[in-house]
Amino acid sequence: MLRAVIAFFVVILVAALAWVWMTLTWSYSEGERAGYVQKLSRKGWLCKTWEGEIAMVTMPGAIPDRFEFSVRDEAVATKINAMAGQRVILSYAQHKFVPTSCFGETEYFVTDARVVGEQPTSLAPPVAPPLTAPVAAPTTAPTAPAR
Length: 147
What we know:
Elements: H1 2-25, E1 29-43, E2 49-56, E3 65-71, H2 74-82, E4 87-94, E5 108-115
């Protein structure tokens, strides 16, 4: 009887470990999101995780969408912190049904980050035309009236 109880708990433990491994290894979806990093902080009582959010602006004057994410890699979190204030592109993998928040509070795990190369024209400041010296029109000297 004791062996059956121990075998039952071993099977449950192995199944739980397999479930955690599967949810963290296989991603449901992958993609990229662009925006401005609003926050990135390391938080948690027992399991410290990097949690952040970016504001994705679609057009000037529109209410920005928020994208909340988790970062598991310390190097990626450092990279995102170094890009503060710039428009960034975050590459992520979505992992559904992760059984605990010790791996991250969201299901979106950021795997890489990079700065957007150019600003969209709608967000770029206006550009003044180059300063050039005015070209003077040719003038002729006034002639005195004939007498």
